[in-house]
Design the sequence.
């Protein structure tokens, strides 16, 4: 989903509980939904080159996360 001018990450993303990698770099995302913490199997999250203003505390629940890219 990288480089697609995505502006909103829908809350429904939390239903993808088997997701291991999520590459959302080079978009226009401003906020990350709080329920991102439900993605317990996520090992890689790439949010580089977006317009994110705040990281939700729930990101701490991503217990298998090995790589987090935010700029």
Sequence:
């Amino acid at each position: 989903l990288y480089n697609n001018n995505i502006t909103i990450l829908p809350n429904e993303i939390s239903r993808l509980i088997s997701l291991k990698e999520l590459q959302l770099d080079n978009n226009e995302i401003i906020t990350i939904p709080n329920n991102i913490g439900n993605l317990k199997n996520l090992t890689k999250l790439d949010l580089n080159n977006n317009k994110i203003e705040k990281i939700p505390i729930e990101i701490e629940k991503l217990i298998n996360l090995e790589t987090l890219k935010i700029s």
About this structure: The chain is about 0% helix and 15% strand. Residues 51 and 67 are 19 Å apart (CA to CA).
